[in-house]
Amino acid sequence: MATDPPALRARGLTKRYGDLVALEPLDLAIPEGQRVVLVGHNGSGKTTLMRMAAGLLEPTAGTVEVLGEPAGSQEARAALSYLPDAPVLYDDLSVLEHVEYTCRLHEAEGWEEQAVALIHDLGLTARADDLPARFSRGLRQKTAIVLALIRPFGVLLVDEPFVGLDPSGQDTFVELMDEAADAGATVIVATHQLEYVKRVDRCIALRDGVLVYDGPPGGTDVARLVAP
Amino acid sequence: MGGTGDPGATTGPSDEPGAGAGGEGDHAAAAIADLRRARRRRRLAAFDAGEAVYRAYITFVLSGIAVWLLSGVVGDTRLGAGALGRVAADGSRVVGAVIGAGWALGARAGGRGGPLALEAADVRHVLLSPVDRAVALRSPALRQLRSTAAVAAGAGAVAGLLAWRRCGGDPAAWVAVGAAVAALAVAGGLGLAMVASGRRFGRLGGGALAVGLLAWSGADAALGTATAPATWLGQVALWPLRFRATGVAGAAVAVILAMAGVASVAGTSIEAAERRSALVGQLRFAATLRDVRTVVVLRRQLSQEQPRSQPWVRLATRNGPVRWAAWRRSLRGIARYPLVRLVRMAVLGAAAGAAGVGVWAGTTPLVLAVGACLYVAGLDAVEPLAQELDHPDRRDAAPVERGVLCLALLAPSVLLMVAVAAVGAAAAVVVVAATGGDVVLAAEVGAVVALPAAAAGVAGAAVSVLQGAPDPASALDTLLPPEGAGVRAIGRLVVPPGLAVLAALPLLVAHHPPPPATALSAAATATPLPLLGAVAAGTWVRYRDAMRAWWTSAMEEAGAARRPTTPGAAP
After folding, report:
1. Which residues from A are below 8 Å from B19, CB to CB?
2. Among partner residues B11, B119, B131, which is closest to A79 by beta-carbon distance?
3. Quick one: which H or E segment has residue B261?
4. DSSP assignment of B50-94, as one string?
5. CB contact under 8 A, A77 and B124
């Protein structure tokens, strides 16, 4: 009987920059619908793993698949939404224009009402027609969150999402990620915020590019894992 | 929220065979086109006609000055029948070698992920969306081809005009072929880069292709044959003198390369595109500001030129005075130069040597080529000093005068540049031997000129790096009258490469040795000129802070003396 492919599968996934190994060969499978947190100290390989899954980095060796499709392929790009740690936005498009453009590129349907709700939830209603180029770091991050969530996706990859967000923005974003997961999406979050670890099904820890823990969040001392 | 539905449904395009083709591709293309239209409208809304007219005026004036200066260098004298015959016979191969070198650069750039320079947001939002990358990238590729070829056509037309002044004939024909050849050469080079990038030739593949292309057109130039497509395209440039039908094939190859490039862009690495998107914008901005150091650093990042993890030679730890510490720091930096940088410096040294032979033979404008090669090699040589300047807090924390530290950091750079100049001398001997000249004399002149040339190259580069980017809020400029600030701005631009150009003066003097001096003695007599330039630059490096403080204080005092006293104020 054919089984559904995992949301994310890495086989021997490796990334080297010259003689620097950013990620040692990694084997990993994350089933659909799981909530996963990725922890590790700075330079442990979290962002490298995420960027390879998003198709922004090419593996030196090994493969990574999103719902059975090679990362970076057109099908994988349709299925995976990536929210990077630093928001990248157009200088000359307003928040709403960003939303419209993203939805058209992803062929989202009925997005207008969802956009209004999402923009409201994140406290951007009064700024919807403004240029994010003139926003603070936190407001730019909120705009990037809107863009990551407004499009269709089956896998949500989030890298250090809480940087620059105020406490209410952090709470709202956690709720939005929970909503996405409740609706069946796989949510993978890389963070240093240990409070978030309690909300997930699985914790994956990396140290110096090596997988050092993969299991339930209660099964280990996470603080020790993320210590440099 | 998009992800709250059935995640299986969110991967819609993947379930359909031929995703990205047909209707979906049209839909994405329409979205991208709409975005570009909206942005163009916004730009037009912010368009300032007065500013545009002013820019056009400045461009026109500067272009006129450039053409006038180039006319002066080329001269007005019509070539004789013999010289014209030689140009008609061999000129196409020389032009072909230049085009071949350009195409080689294209292949090399393509192997490293160039030449497309996309906006960072386009990489994140368009290239990470399920839009066919052929649709997303075709338009930027065509735009880059169009704009670069247009600029090249303008430069080619000027070159054609200058060629007509020396060679005669129909000026319109010269201008037309000049513009066409330059545009085709650039389009072919960019196309080749896009093919190398889209087909993932990689650094090794792109480099090998570059060497092959360079060798092919170089062999044509050396052997007097016409087998390389670049040489055929070079024949078009001389059609007003001699029509060769193979030129059409050269033009066709350039067009095919450009078309193949546009057809290949879909395969461009997104990793390279993202890296370039961040760097190219900064590079353009730094170039606009004439910030040479930033341009050098960004260009290295663009080509992923990193210091070696393991040094070529490891220096033992030793204690000693501050000056020795700076020497050792500088040597340690040089010991980590990557191979590509050392090779580039050697090639620049060889090019300076070859150009020096031309100066010695009487082609005076080549002094600029000698100076340019030494200046660029010098910018690589003074990297330890530049690193120190890039981290001013660290430098200023040392209990040492900045001038002393900077000067000590430069000493190993001079030694490195002596090696580069030695390569230049060797190249000059090879060129002289190949043209049947006096090899012993060439070696002697090379030996005499090497040290001053090295010092001049380091001096120019050190001044350039130390002066940094122009500061619009400079206290010095605000104290100077506008005319003085203008002269200072030109000086900042001209002096650093000018110091390096001084290296060619002994060769210029050797060309016309005043009787009874020989070429060797004349060159030796003129070596103090570049050395004096280097000493002046060294003095400026050492006492720059003190001179600046004195000048600022003097200007403030002069300003205070000119200011009218307030009535009733104390005298």
Report:
1. 74-75, 78
2. B11
3. helix B246-264
4. HHHHHHHHHHHHHHHHHHHHHHHHH-SPPP-HHHHHHHHHHHHHH
5. no
Tokens of B527: 């070596």
Give residue-wise pLDDT tens across range B72-121. 666 566 777 777 888 888 888 989 999 999 999 999 999 988 898 888 88
- Identify each DSSP E strand in chain A by its residue range: 8-17, 20-30, 35-39, 61-66, 69-70, 80-83, 155-159, 186-190, 202-207, 210-215
Is A75 within 8 Å of B128 when comparing Cβ atoms?
A: no
Looking at residue A74, its amino acid is Q
Q: Is the pLDDT of residue B402 over 90?
A: no
Residues linked to residue A81 through DSSP beta bridges, in sequence order:
A156
SS3 call for B117: coil
Q: Chain A: give the shortest CA distance to residue B564, in Å.
A: 44
Chain A residue closest to B16 (CA)?
A75
Residue spans of alpha helices (H) in B312-401: 322-334, 339-360, 366-381, 383-390, 392-397
Pick B5's closest partner by Cβ from A82, A84, A183: A183
Radius of gyration of chain B (CA): 28
Average pLDDT over residues A20-33: 94
Closest Cα in chain A to B306: A18
Task: Please indicate, yes or no, whether the overall pTM of this predicted structure exceeds 0.90.
Answer: no
Give the mean pLDDT of B287-309. 82
Rounded CA-CA distance B291/B133 in Å is 35
Report the distance separating Cα B497 and Cα B504, nearest Å.
Answer: 12
Asked if B11 and A154 come within 8 Å (Cβ–Cβ), the reply is yes
Answer for the pair A94, A128: CB distance below 8 angstroms, yes or no.
Answer: yes
Q: Percent of chain B, pLDDT > 90? A: 40
B305 shares contact with chain A (CB less than 8 Å): no
Q: CB A186 to CB B7 under 8 A?
A: yes
Separation of alpha carbons A83 and A88, rounded Å: 10
pLDDT band of residue A36 (cuts 50, 70, 90) is very high
Q: Which two tokens stand for residue B192?
A: 């080749």
Contact between residue B114 and residue B299 where contact means Cβ atoms under 8 Å apart: no
Nearest to B10 among A57, A102, A153 (CB): A153
Answer whether B309 touches A (CB < 8 Å).
Answer: yes
* Minimal-distance CA residue of chain A relative to B132: A74
Comparing CB atoms, the residue among A75, A101, A156 nearest residue B13 is: A75
pLDDT (mean) for A136-154: 94
- Over 80: is that where the pLDDT of B235 sits? yes
- For residue A151, the chain B residue with the least C-alpha distance is B2
Structure tokens at B241: 């003198």
Question: Is B530 in contact with B506 (CB distance < 8 Å)?
Answer: yes
> What pLDDT digit, counting tens, does each position of B31-51 carry?
888 887 877 777 777 777 777
As a whole number of angstroms, the distance between CA B25 and CA B266 comes to: 13
Q: What is the pLDDT of residues A41-93, one digit of tens each?
A: 988 999 999 999 999 999 999 999 999 999 999 899 999 999 998 898 888 78
From chain B, the residues in CB contact with A186 under 8 A are 7
Task: Give the one of B14, B28, B119 whose C-beta lies nearest to A75's C-beta.
Answer: B14
d(CA B278, nearest CA chain A) in Å: 11
Phi, psi (5° rounding) for residue A158? -130, 125
Angle B81-111/B171-198 helices, nearest 10 degrees?
20
B291 — contact with chain A (CB < 8 Å)? no
Chain A CB within 8 Å of residue B274 CB: yes
Q: Is B360 strand, coil or helix?
A: helix
Residue B118 near chain A (CB below 8 Å): no
Are A106 and B274 inside 8 Å of each other by CB? no
The Cα–Cα gap between B100 and B192 comes to: 11
Q: ipTM above 0.85?
A: no
